[in-house]
Amino acid sequence: MNKIPSMFLTHASDILGDTTNGLSGNNITKVFTAYAVDSDTNIPYDTYPFEAPNKRTALLENLKCFEPKEQYKIIKELCEHSKLPQPIHDSINNLKIQLIARYSEQFGSVSSETLNETLVEEAKHWLERHPDSLKLYETALVKFNNNIFERNLLDDLRLSLEMLLKSIFNNGKSLENQIPQIGAFISTNGGSKEFSNMFRTLVDYYSKYQNSFVKHNDAVIEEEVEFTFEMTSSFMKHLVKMHIKE
Q1: Residues 226 and 134 placed together within one structural domain of the fold
Q2: Does a structural domain hold residue 112?
Q3: Same domain, yes or no, for 157 and 65?
Q4: Which tens digit of pLDDT belongs to each residue from 185-235?
Q5: Which domain, by its residues, includes 159?
Q6: Please, what is the Cα angle at 30 between 6 and 36, to 5 degrees?
Q7: CB of 136 within 8 A of CB of 165?
Q8: Would the pTM of this model clear 0.90, i.e. be above it?
């Protein structure tokens, strides 16, 4: 595949140009105009109000004028636009996740040396329901993206997971003291005995690994930080999804 399918472009335009949950026509025009100037591309709708049946049509017709790499960047930027209605609607988050999962390898800037961006976006999406945990998670992400592979990055991740568990279980326990309750929580929510035991054991080892750096102030290894970041993301994503089902 050397392009983003027209069906996906239409889907993205319908979501981003939605009357209730999408962007205003003015904000859409500003983003497209900036890209058009940078890439010396002519677009049919470069001013607002535009002569189009609706925002969705204008957005789609403008998108079609760009190369796939620019289409990818534009859709991603619109999904992250600061003027989107708050809180961000699930349809926007799902669109961004689909975009990254399907097309980042071809048209994005993700390499094998970076975090699993799809997993990170999914974790951030689910953590929106737990803002204290999300804030710490995003702090850790900023440090990682700026190559700050220090112990306090791991501290942020650990505390983010701990804050999430406190929110879900409605208590004030430390991460270590939540481990028995994690197993019971998974079993109660339909998880198999084997999955419950595996999840609980992984969190136990995760906690011990984190504690070793806190106590000994060791220099962390970059590859281990990446693995730990993605493991934390997976833990939190599944915990929140199970919590919602209760």
Answers
A1: yes
A2: no
A3: no
A4: 999 998 999 999 999 999 999 999 888 876 555 567 777 888 999 999 999
A5: 117-245
A6: 60
A7: no
A8: no
